[in-house]
Design goal:
The chain is of the alpha/beta class and about 650 residues long. The chain is built from 25 helices and twelve strands.
Length: about 650
C-alpha cells in the first residue's frame, strides 16, 4: 500500500497537467497542490515509520466516511492525535492541516484521481511489506550508527587535535607524519592513528572530540535487543581477530578496513581505517553490510582542502571525487581493475571515482567475510546494505557490485536490498538508464529534502562548478542545487523523504545532513544512543552513559610522547626555549608511568594531585609562550582527570 501511495504522489507531482491537445487550464495544480501532496506524504510516512498502521488505513480508505482523505472528512481532532503520536511539529495548526487535506477536487488531473488509480490495486489494508519497511528503517539507521561507533572505537586518540582550530596546523601535520615514519605517500592527509583491535571492545561508550564538543557513541537499540555474540575484525591480510561477547547472542559482527583519501590525480595517496562491518543474524540468517560516514571536522576547511587540493581529511577527499565520473580506456591499469570489480562485463558506466575506489579497497575483505559465513552457516536468506552520507554512497556501489560485479557470485538466491541514508548520487543519469535502475524497488532512500549532499546532480556540470566557486556561502547552496530533476542523480526509490518546509523550525543544510535527524524527527519509542555535549560535566547528568568509563577512556588514551615531540618541534621552528615545558611533561609522564595497569582507578586517585599540578604548570607555560597547540586538549584532559578521580574516590 505504501509503495503504491508514494508512486501515486510521485506521478501526480511529475505529471504534465496541460497541453495544446488537452488544455486542462482549470485543473492545473500549483503550489497549493504540491503542498497538499507533500503534507499528505509526510503524515503517511510518519505514521508508517512510527507503527500507526490503522491511521493510515483510515486516511487512505477509498470508501471511508470518516477521517478519509478521499471523502474530505479529516477532522482537526484526528490530526491532533496523529501529531501527538508521531511527534510531528508542523508549522501549521491541526485545523489548518485538516483544511488543506480536505481541499482539492476529483478532476481527472487531481491528486485524488492519481491516488485512487494507484490504491485501487490494494484492499485498503496495510500489507506485511509495509510493516517490514518500518522495521527496516529502524534496523538500518541503527546499523549506520553502529558503523560510526566502531570507527570511533578504533581511533587511537579520541582527542583528535585536527578537529579543532589549532595554530600551525600544517606544521603539526608534517611533524606527526615525520615522527611516525611515513613514507610521504599520504603526507597530504590529516594524520590519524588507529588501533583496529580496540574496535572489538563494544562494552563502553566511545568518546570522540568534534571541535570543542564531545560526541558519545553508545550501543544502538537493535544491537541491545538482539545481543551481540561475537565481534571480529578482518584486516588487509584477511586475518580474523575474534572476541566472544555473549555465546547466547544472535548477532555476529565482522568489521573490515578500507582506504579513503585517494584522488584521481594522486592514486597512491590513501589512509586505511575501519570502513564498515557485516552482521549476521543467527536465527533469521539475514546478512547486513554497513558502511560508516565521513569523520567530521571543520566543514569549510575540510571541504576547500579536499575540493581544490585533494588534501586534508581523507574521507572528504573521497567525497569530493564525486565529480570525477569518467572511467575509460585511457585510465591506468589500477583504475581498470577497480572498475571490473564493480562491473565485470558492462562497459562505459560513469560512476563517482571516490566512492568506487574506496569500496574496491574493501571488497576483498567483504567477499572473504561473506564466503566464511556461507561456509559456516550454509545459508543466507537476505542481504541488505546501508550507510549514512559517505556510507550511503558506498552502500550504493556495493549494491551495484552484488548486482553486476564480483560479489554477484556469492548471493545465489538471496535477495539484495540497499537502504542508504542522506546518500550522495554515485551514477550519472545515462548510466542509470543504461543499467535500468532508475526506479529499482530494492534501493530505498531516506533523506531530508533540504540536504545538499543528497540532491547533488552529477549530470549538471554547471552546478558542480558553482559549488567549487561558492562553497563558503552555505545559505545559497541549497537553492542552487535543488532542481526539478534532482532525483535523477539517484537510482532506486525515495520512499522516506522528509519535507523540511513543513516543519515549525525548518532544518537547513548542513544540519539536515546529520544522521540524528532520522531518530529525533520521529517518535520511535527508543533512545537516541548518541548526543553532543558542550562540556564533560554535562555527561554525568545523563544516565544513558557510563560517565566514569567515558572519562577513563579519555585519560587512558592520552599520549604524552606525541605532546613532547610537538613541543620540541615548535621550539625549534620558532626558536624559543621550551625546556621548562618539556621538563614538566617528563614529570607528569613519570607519574603516569607509575599507574598500576591492573588497578588503574585507585592509581589515578593516588597520583591525581601531582598530575594535576604538573598539567596546570604545562598549560600556563604553553599559554605564556603562545603555544596554542594541544592547550584545549590538555584542559579537557585535566578536567577529565579531576572529574574521574572525584568519582573514583
Amino acid at each position: 500500500m505504501y509503495r503504491l501511495f508514494i508512486e501515486g504522489i510521485t506521478r501526480y507531482k511529475r505529471a504534465s497537467k496541460s497541453s495544446w491537445l488537452n488544455p486542462q487550464f482549470m485543473h492545473h495544480h500549483g503550489s497549493a497542490g504540491v503542498e497538499r501532496a507533500n503534507l499528505l506524504k509526510e503524515i503517511i510516512m510518519r505514521l508508517l515509520l512510527c507503527g500507526y498502521y490503522e491511521h493510515i488505513e483510515t486516511i487512505l480508505s477509498l470508501k471511508g466516511k470518516y477521517d478519509s482523505y478521499f471523502s474530505s472528512s479529516i477532522t482537526t481532532e484526528f490530526i491532533d492525535q496523529i501529531n501527538k503520536n508521531t511527534k510531528f511539529t508542523s508549522k501549521y495548526s491541526a485545523k489548518k492541516i485538516a483544511k488543506i487535506l480536505n481541499s482539492g477536487n476529483d478532476n481527472p488531473s487531481s491528486m485524488r484521481t492519481f491516488l485512487k488509480k494507484s490504491l485501487s490495486k490494494t484492499n485498503n489494508k496495510i500489507s506485511s511489506e509495509c510493516k517490514i519497511l518500518s522495521y527496516l528503517y529502524r534496523k538500518h539507521i541503527d546499523h549506520s550508527l553502529m558503523s560510526y561507533k566502531l570507527f570511533a572505537a578504533s581511533v587511537q586518540n579520541p582527542l583528535d587535535p585536527f578537529y579543532a582550530k589549532v595554530e600551525n596546523r600544517k606544521k603539526m601535520l608534517k611533524h606527526l607524519h615525520m615522527i611516525n615514519d611515513r613514507d610521504g605517500k599520504d603526507a597530504n592527509l590529516d594524520f590519524m592513528e588507529y588501533d583496529f583491535i580496540s574496535s572489538l571492545d563494544l562494552s563502553q561508550d566511545n568518546v570522540y572530540l568534534v571541535g570543542d564538543d564531545l560526541k558519545i557513541y553508545g550501543l544502538p537499540f537493535f544491537f541491545k535487543e538482539n545481543k551481540i555474540a561475537l565481534v571480529s575484525i578482518v584486516d588487509d591480510c584477511f586475518q580474523m581477530n575474534k572476541k566472544i561477547i555473549n555465546a547466547a547472542g544472535l548477532l555476529e559482527i565482522y568489521a573490515f578496513t578500507g582506504f579513503t583519501g585517494s584522488a584521481k590525480k594522486n592514486l597512491n595517496q590513501n589512509q586505511r581505517s575501519v570502513l564498515g562491518y557485516i552482521t549476521f543474524h543467527r536465527e533469521t540468517k539475514d546478512l547486513t553490510v554497513a558502511f560508516r560516514g565521513s569523520r567530521s571536522g571543520n566543514a569549510v576547511t575540510a571541504l576547500l582542502n579536499a575540493l581544490f587540493f585533494s588534501c586534508g581529511n581523507a574521507d572528504w577527499v573521497t567525497d569530493m571525487e564525486i565529480f570525477n565520473t569518467e572511467w575509460n580506456s585511457k585510465d591506468n591499469n589500477l583504475l581498470s581493475k577497480d572498475y571490473k570489480k564493480i562491473f565485470t562485463s558492462i562497459s562505459n558506466i560513469n560512476i563517482a571515482y571516490g566512492f568506487a575506489t574506496t569500496f574496491c579497497s574493501s571488497v576483498e575483505n567483504i567477499r572473504a567475510i561473506i564466503q566464511f559465513l556461507k561456509d559456516e552457516h550454509k545459508a543466507i536468506n537476505s542481504i541488505s546494505i546501508t550507510g549514512h552520507s559517505l556510507g550511503g554512497g558506498l552502500a550504493q556501489v556495493c549494491y551495484l557490485c552484488f548486482k553486476f560485479g564480483v560479489l554477484s557470485e556469492l548471493i545465489n538466491n538471496s535477495k539484495v536490498y540497499c537502504f542508504p541514508f542522506s546518500a550522495p548520487p554515485v551514477l550519472t543519469k545515462p548510466s542509470i538508464e543504461k543499467l535500468k535502475l532508475l526506479d529499482d524497488p530494492q534501493v530505498i532512500h531516506s533523506y531530508l529534502d533540504s540536504d545538499l549532499v543528497h540532491v547533488l546532480d552529477l549530470d549538471n556540470g554547471i552546478k558542480s562548478k558553482i559549488l567549487k566557486c561558492y562553497v563558503a556561502i552555505k545559505g545559497i547552496i541549497p537553492s542552487i542545487f535543488r532542481g526539478s530533476k534532482q532525483e535523477l542523480g539517484h537510482f532506486g526509490v525515495n520512499l522516506f523523504a522528509f519535507s523540511t518546509d513543513l516543519y515549525k523550525e525548518k532544518i537547513d543544510f548542513p544540519n539536515s545532513h546529520e544522521y540524528e535527524n532520522f531518530y529525533t524527527l520521529l517518535d520511535l519509542k527508543i533512545d537516541l544512543p548518541t548526543c553532543i555535549v558542550k562540556e564533560l560535566s554535562e555527561i554525568k547528568n545523563n544516565k544513558r552513559f557510563n560517565y566514569v568509563e567515558c572519562l577513563f577512556n579519555i585519560i587512558n588514551r592520552f599520549d604524552f610522547n606525541i605532546l613532547r615531540e610537538s613541543i620540541q618541534f615548535t621550539g625549534l621552528q620558532r626558536k624559543i626555549d621550551v625546556s621548562d615545558v618539556l621538563k614538566e611533561i617528563n614529570t607528569v609522564n613519570s607519574y603516569y608511568q607509575m599507574i598500576d595497569g591492573n588497578n588503574p582507578m585507585s592509581s589515578y586517585v593516588k597520583y591525581f594531585q601531582k598530575i594535576d599540578i604538573s598539567l596546570k604548570k604545562i598549560i600556563i607555560l604553553m599559554e605564556s609562550k603562545k603555544i596554542q597547540d594541544y592547550v584545549t586538549i590538555l584542559k579537557i584532559y585535566r578536567e577529565a582527570i579531576r572529574e574521574f578521580t572525584g568519582y573514583a574516590s
